[in-house]
Structures are given as C-alpha cells and as structure tokens.
Queue: 4 jobs
Job 1
Amino acid sequence: MKNFLFVMRQPPFQGSRIRESMDMIMTVAAFDQCVKILFLDDGVFLLKSNQNPDNPDLKTSTPLFAALELYDVEELWVEGESLAERGLDPSHLILPVRTLGRTEIAFFLAKADIVVNC
C-alpha cells in the first residue's frame, strides 16, 4: 500500500480541474490505497460551507467532498495559516479537518510516498 497525498491549492469554480482531481482521489482510494488530502492557499475555499457559483454552468463541489467518506478518505488536512489569511476557521468548513502549521508542511509532504498537486 502506498501513501498518497493530494494537495488542493485551487479555488472552487475554476472549471473542471477540481472534479477531475476528485475523480483521481476516489479512484486511488477505491484501490485501497492510503489517501490524505491537504488544502493549501485558496484551496481551503473548496471546503467552505454555503457556496454558490455565480455561473449557473458551474456546480458546487460539496457533494463530491461528502462522498469521500464512502471511499474511506477521512484524513483531510488544512494549513492553519491559509485558513486565517482568508478569514476562515474549521467551523466554517463542510467537513471535519485537521490543522497543520506552515512550518509542518514540508515534513508532512516528506512522509507521503506519492504527492499529487491538484
């Protein structure tokens, strides 16, 4: 079994990139690999509750994140500084997360066998 770490840095509603990343995450998890997701920078907005895109052609990614539990993806991490810089805290998010400090990120990345920047 490999340890996969998916790093989500992009804000929501930026085309199909998030959906494609979520498809990749769920596919890896379906093959019983260890999957962790780290939300950095504007990627923390992906988990913000009560989001509605301005463009009706874009859909919220909330149902995709809710489906992670079905794939046993339970390790969701956020960088605390990314949250604070954007005026958010864990209570504003749709799923429970664990928080890392900016100084811990390099060590966290080094523990993964495979890092995928989404």
Job 2
Amino acid sequence: MCQEKMLVLGFGNEVLTDDGVGVKVVTHFKELNENPQIVYETSWLGGLDILDHFIEDYQTAVFIDASKTGNVEPGTIEQYDLDNFKETLHLSNFHDANFINTIKLGSKLGFRIPGSIIIISIEIVEDELFGNNFSKEIEGKYKEILKTINAIVQSLSKKPD
C-alpha cells in the first residue's frame, strides 16, 4: 500500500442545496477515515488559498466539487486531471486566480505541488436556493455518489510505490 500523503478536499456551501455536495461527501468520509495517510478537508472557495492552506506537502490531491453544466444527468460524476480539467463551481474563484493558473503559479513560486492532482466533479441541479437538503435528484443518487467517490479515493490510495 502506498505511504504517500493524500489530501481529499471538498468544496461548496452546505446551505445552498446541492452546492454543498463536495463538502458533505468529504465530511462523511472524514468521520469514517481509518487511513492516517488520507487527510479530508473542506473549503468554500478555491483560488490562491489552495496553495497556502491546503495542497503543499501532499503527494496526491483530490478535489471534489459540484458542476452545473446542464450537459449531463444530475448526479453524474466526472473525473479530470490537469491535462483535461474542466471548471467546477468553486475551484476557480472569480475574485482570484483560476485553478490551472493557481497551480502553475504555485509551481513557479516554489510551492510543493502534488505530483498527482485529480478533480472529481458532481453534476448538480440547484445551487442558488438556501436549504440544508439536496434536490430530489441528488438526494436519490447520494448513496451511489458516495460509493463511486469512495472507490476512486481508495484506488488512488492503493497505487503501487
């Protein structure tokens, strides 16, 4: 089993219906975590704060965020890396640097950027209504979302040395 440190960072706002799906997924896994090599954290926003507060010193970083494209069925999970990255709702901050530029800048400034960066995007329905509950579409698929994301994270944590 790989002994590298992995960060799993969930984004979103838990009081905006589906928007908080990344935070809720990560909070669920954090409560069950038995692997000291995996660190689970949450954040509302991406941008330059990712560099200083989160990713430095991890060999792998997994970012879990919501997307609202309307191009795929709600609850669809897509996985990206830096080569095929597509914007999610929070990884890039409109008042800050976008995600890819943040990673490039961090590398140029000498931050220790993880060698493996994975982005997991969950298609949502609603991100503007206040509410602690998911939309019926996301609620109906939440157990499957947890199962799929857990399988991804566990497979990344078991990469051979």
Job 3
Amino acid sequence: MSRVCQLTGKRTTAGNNRPFSLKATKRTFRPNLFVKKMFNPETGRVEKMKLSAKAIRTLKKWAAEGAAKVEDTKTTAGVAHNAGEGKHVKKEKMTPKQKKELEATKAAAAKEAGESA
C-alpha cells in the first residue's frame, strides 16, 4: 500500500539532512498516516481509510461543527462524505447571487406562512 493520505493527498517527499557542517545528504519525509475506520453516510458502510493526523483533526473539527448544525436544523450531518477521493475536500461556498436567491426563497416561504396563518 502506498503512503498517501486519502483525504488530503499528503505523500512521501524528498529532502536533505542538514547537519552542523551543512553537508547535504538525501532523506525522505513520510506523512504521519493512520488507518482509521470511517462511516460513509452515502453508502451506509464502514470503510478503512488511510488518513494523516492533520486530516483526522480536521474531520473531528467538521464533526463538531456538524453536530452544532444538527442541533439547529435537526438533520443528519455526514462527516466524511467525500473522503476517499484522494483530494482535499473543500467546503462549498455560495456566490452572492446564490445567497440572494436563498434569501428570496426564505422570504417567499415566510410570506406564504404569514398568509396561511
């Protein structure tokens, strides 16, 4: 198995040892990888993943944020929904146009709720 984080894409890199004499000798920098069992909410299965320590900390942070959102919205939050793609998972950002459309739909829904009540 290769030494690559499945979430962040961290991999073994090469560099130099630099002692006091500054004589450079080649060495490798290996990522701090762990094999973790993660629940994938899309498939409903537990999968083994090779994750770096940084990726594990990030997933814990996202899980804590997701738990706070679950309490607010009463929905289920997926922690590692895009995990295993081999690239860093970025949070989705909304454009100003999308934000205006979302506000308009919320205002329309509130207006309908006000008329029906």
Job 4
Amino acid sequence: MKITDAAVYPYPIGDASVRRLALEAAALGFDSIVAVDTPSGTYGGVEVRSGLMIRDVPVKDVISAVKRSKDSGRVISVNAANNNFNRAVIGLKGVHILRGIQSADKLAFDHVAAKMAADNRVAVDIDLSPIIMGRSVARQRAIHRYMDIMVLEQRFEFPITLSTHARSVLDMRNVRDIAGLCSLIGMDVPDVERALAGVGSVLTPPVPSVRVIA
C-alpha cells in the first residue's frame, strides 16, 4: 500500500501548484497524495489522486454528486454533520472517506456508525491541520475527538486516513513528524502505517472470503 497524504489543496484553493506539492510530498516520504479538485497524474514518482470534497449539502445532493462521479477514479469524501446524516452517507456506495469529524458533535459518530464504516469500508479521516496549526481550545478539542475515534477504531476496525489539508508546502509534514503528531491521539506505529495506507485500502476491492476453484 502507498503512503498517502489524504488531502492537499493545490492552486487556486492553495498557493502552490499540484506539481510543487507532489514534489514536496516525495521529499517528505510520501508515495501519493489526494489533491482536491485536481486531475490525476504523476509528478516526481508521486501519484496524484483526484479528490472530490462534498460539504454542507443534504443527503439527496450527496447521492447525486456520488452518482455523477461514479467510475471516475476520484477519491470521494463527505464532510461529517449530525449522526443521522453520517450514517446515511456511510451507507452510500461510492463514498470513500468521512471527513471533518473533529468539528462535528461528539455524538455524530457512535458505535453504530463505526460498525457501518467497517462493514462498508468507509474511512474516517484524521485531519492533522487542527493539531499542526490549531491553538488552545480548538487544538485540544480535535485531540480529544480523535482519541474517541481511535477507541471506536480499535473495537470495530474501520479504515482511517491521515490528511494534512495542506494549502502550501509549509503546511506539509514528513512521515516521522506525522507519526509523532498521531502519538498525541493514542496511535502507535502500526496504527499510523495502516492509516497512511488507508486511501489505498478503501479504493481496493475487498478480497472475497470464499474462492471458488474450478
């Protein structure tokens, strides 16, 4: 599995080209990045996966957006909201990642949603930007929410992704630094390794548990 930063924002959202972000990612030890609203490609040996972020829309609009992107190869993410919304989008075929859980209500992702995420292979994203750039209450809130998520992950084993949400090369971090940041939320090295490979795991079709041999 490739080591992936699951969300970066090239120009015009950010201030660096996708090529510049990819080359920086290579220098920091990554094999791939998910670049929002950017065509797929390869730069300096780093695979750029096109990312679609769906935010602040009702479930019916999420369904429409996912249908339009069917078979596009894009990494489809939906921003978390309340518990009912999160359960609904986790159950949609084609949704890969639930994001922004640190900003949602504490009850927005419970054991039922966790079981659904595991069954449907939908990842929960750990957005590291509040830890990297956040201060005081915002930073502590994110850390505590992620610790809650990791408790559920240990029980239900749903996929996790890690994102810097970088808008410039200055926002990016190397793999070792990311492992250090993740230790703040109770992730050990194997946890970090699985999460860095999380994008690949949700995009790879599951291996059938039973194989028929002719």
